[in-house]
Structure formats: structure tokens, C-alpha cells
Amino acid sequence: MAAAAKSPTLVIGIGHPHRGDDAAGLLVARRLQRQAPPRIAIRESTGDGLSLLDRWQQKDRVFLVDAIQSGAPEGTLHRFELGQGPTPFEACRNTPHGFGVAEAIELARTLGRLPRRLIVYAIEGRAFGIGDALSAAVEEAVLEVVRRICAEVEV
User: Which of 61, 137, 146, 155 could form a disulfide with 74 if both were Cys (CB 3.0 to 4.6 A apart)?
Assistant: First the structure.
């Protein structure tokens, strides 16, 4: 935990490990645990929006990774930087989580508790049922998000 407290960059992978494509954010976090620079703190979350507010407190830059369903082809990546402008609420709210990412972002904005930079990677999924397998397109997208986050952190 001490390393996480000193790290200015936090990655939060959101999802459920037994709901097919919903595991995408968790898989990104787990891959980053193995290959990301030590200056990045990495956490997993079930998507509870209120816990996100506490997790990103006092961080300069936060990456959230979650699966969504917006109608785009599975495996499509969406990237939003939300520290400055409004949340693309409709895209972020189509997750299997109740009070989730979009609601947490808007509440944090209202309370003045947004990180300086908040970057959301949303991976378009198709299979979210209990016991569903991760789709091949989402698995490829997971690898791409890991690559992109590593590249962004190196800049």
C-alpha cells in the first residue's frame, strides 16, 4: 500500500471475473501488474462508484478500464479524458454496474474530487452473462489497452 500512496498514477481495472467480457478491466489490471513500471499503482474494482472516489483521491492521473455496451462492434476501444470536459454519460453508463463509473465521475465533479487527469478506456463487450467466456475481440482489446496505458505512462 505504501507504494500506491506515493504513486501519482493509478490504474483501476473494473469488472466481474465470471461474467465474460465484463472481466476486461480486471484483465488489464492483472496484465499491468506483471509488466507496468513500479511507479504505477494498480487496483481492481467491482465497479462500485462510491469506492472509486476514495481510490483515486490524491492521484495526479487515473486510468479507469471497464467494459461497456454501446452498440459498437465488440472489441471497439473508446478513450475519454474526463478531467476537463463533461462525461460522455451515455457511453460510460452502459456498463453492468449499478452506481458505476459515469455516476462516480459526475459525483466527484460536483464534490470537487476529480483527479487532475482522469482517463477512461471503455472496451466494447458482447457477452456479460455469468459463466460466459471472454470474446476473442475483447481479449485483443485488453492487450491493446495495456500497450496504450504503458505508452501513455512512459510519455
Answer: 137
